């Protein structure tokens, strides 16, 4: 081996030994940093291989396509949000309704802090022609969020705080409302990008107020029990998305 080859070998990044789960998480972290910085369309699998310092074979041992990376990133992002919100819910004082409202408030607070990440996902979901990727994002979120919501409603029913005809149906309907929220979110983001943050905030808040009213009815609660309307959080979230 000549001197040049020795220098190249010594300067090359060393492959770290990792357990399979650690390796998968390492690849996802590399992909996430690239996607958030450069956008979905501007990142290739080759870019991810370089960022993660792995071989093509190492990548395909864990993922079959670029879209699989999106699934993993969405699941991680959603899981982190729910993990934080669940911790706040567990620590909250009061009954099931108080804990649920604490959970919802923490979810909003967490989103406010994730401007760049939210912008990436919203751009992916709202861009014309991205229906397939939008569906994958929605399915990945649902897979994690639905069991958590089912657990929250179940505890409320057990405590006698919620009165529902069918827990699965109510949980699924609440999740479905979030799917239908896309048009309202698209309108709000577009209005915010045009410079009218106040109007954008009003549009998003109106939608969430309506969803809260429906959730009150589905859970058998007095009107105004579920606290989804918080204009200050929605304004901060929209500002974070616009300026990300």
Describe the structure concisely.
The chain has 244 residues and is mostly helical.
Describe the 3D structure.
The chain has 244 residues and is an all-alpha fold. It has two domains: 16-64, Orthogonal Bundle (Arc Repressor Mutant, subunit A); 65-243, Tetracycline Repressor, domain 2. The protein contains twelve helices and no strands. The chain has helices at 3-11, 20-38, 45-52, 56-62, 66-91, 96-112, 115-126, 131-159, 167-180, 182-193, 197-218, 231-243. Helix 6 (96-112) packs parallel to helix 12 (231-243). It is globular, with a radius of gyration of 21 Å.
Specify the CATH architecture of the largest domain: Orthogonal Bundle
Per DSSP, the total helix count is 12
SSE topology string: HHHHHHHHHHHH
Tally of strands = 0
What proportion strand? under 5%
Largest sheet: number of strands, sense, barrel closure = none
Distance from first to last alpha carbon: 49 Å
Summed over residues and divided by their number, the pLDDT gives a mean of 87
What oligomeric state best describes the polypeptide chains here?
single chain
CA-based shape: globular
Radius of gyration: 21 Å
> Would you tell me which CATH topology of the largest domain applies?
Tetracycline Repressor, domain 2
Q: Please estimate the helix content.
A: over 70%
Poorly predicted runs of 5 or more residues: 1-13
InterPro entries: Homeodomain-like_sf, HTH-type_TetR-like_transc_reg, HTH_TetR
Protein name: Transcriptional regulator, TetR family
Organism: Sulfitobacter litoralis
Domain HTH tetR-type: 21-81
